[in-house]
Amino acid sequence: MNVGERMPTDGNRGIGILLVAGAVVSLALIGGLPAVVFVAFFLVMLVLHELGHYLVARRCGMQVTEFFVGFGPRLWSFRRGETEYGIKAILAGAYVRITGMNNLEIVDPAIENRTYRAQSYPRRLAVTFAGSAAQFLVAIILLVVVFSAIGRPDPSNWTVGEVVPGSAAEQMGVRESDRVLAVGGVDTADFEDFGYVIRALPGRTVSVKLERDGQVTRINGEVGERLTPAGAAALPGVEPGDRVVAVDGRPVAGWAGLSSAVQEGETYRLEVRRYLGAPEVIDVTVAELPDETEAVSGFFGVGADWPMATLGPVQAAGQALASFGDLVIASVDGLIRVFSPGGLANIVGGAVDAATDVRSGVAVSVEDDDARLLSPYGVGRLGSAMFESGAYNYLWFWVLINVFVGVFNLVPVPPLDGGHIAIATYERLRSWRGRRYRADAAKLIPLTWVVAALIVGVTLVALYRDIVDLPDFG
Known about the structure:
- The protein is α+β, with helices and mostly antiparallel strands.
- The protein has helices spanning 10-59, 121-150, 168-172, 191-199, 229-233, 254-261, 292-295, 313-338, 341-360, 376-389, 391-409, 417-430, 445-468; strands spanning 64-80, 83-98, 152-153, 159-163, 179-183, 186-187, 205-212, 215-222, 224-227, 243-247, 250-251, 267-273, 279-285, 296-299, 302-305, 308-309.
- The protein has a four-stranded antiparallel beta sheet. The protein has a four-stranded antiparallel beta sheet with strand order 11-10-12-13, with helices on one face.
- Helix 2 packs antiparallel against helix 12.
- It is elongated.
């Protein structure tokens, strides 16, 4: 127990418990079951992170004086040996107190040999890495559960999951659950291959080979067109993915009909059909028109549905490790992009744009953001959406959260775990011929405050954006 810190009286403890219970009830009333489950899972994740530090520190013989869930006033605690365990009022995380985590801490010389700072480099490395390692282990276990119990989409066995109204697929009579085997004589067993083939055939009449109810059939029809970014750039005000259906009230068929009906530099009134949207009429001054091969891409109008295929234990473990590696790389790349000077400028600029768009009544889509960083509020809303979408998406959501938080904690700056790893590594490199070098922790205090302020600032900006312009999670 810290000097001067008192255990709460029964009355104060009772008030604290009532406040926590009230907060839980309020959360349930405001966010429902998904919000309660999200907060519970997030708290468990943080506790497991600290448990990793605790177990390895104890294994290495270090002194651990506290292991608490939450922050603020104590609600309940007990002491076993030299460690006090308990729960505090603000259930926003957990912490472990290991003696001698920095060189400024005053420690009884009798236990100096059990402090973190007195340990060997491998032991210090193990303790600081253990928190992220616990989250990585949780992510891998969740991936194994997903692949072995729920399965993964089979990319070579896709079927039509939805048909876009008014699309080429609807006009041809394509139905949900149909399986597209080939387009124009090209095999399309993989949905990605299907997309490549369709995009290369705008406005072309093709033969589509289908499997429906176990029977193979063929249908013929014309592939639709959608404007590419190059095509949309020639028609200011029109967006990629749109389709121009009329010029000054006269219907046009595809890019060929459009390009023959307009002249560069002239202004026309275009009727535009947006993807899954209502028709719009836009006045456009035509810029330089690109060739048809650059201006439009093919559009069929179907969404894919993949049957889930479960894996055996060995295959599931192998796939879990492969997926985990990909997620680590993606998390590192995302952190570099977000916290680079350009990424930070985009975050701040996006907040300004979001405020402007809200005031003018214009909604900004999530696609407008190069690197949209969500605040804890935004992550909670995303978690609620994933909860409603089913176990597969929800488990994947927690895999992503565990991997990202684990990687983030290893960024080599204080006060993150990676900062302790960097300091330990620096001290090891400066130690020579048995002489132990210790860095001056006082010099790192300004850097610690700068990093903490940066994290808090980015979080507040992200929170502001999530409040005024929360992405549509579907």
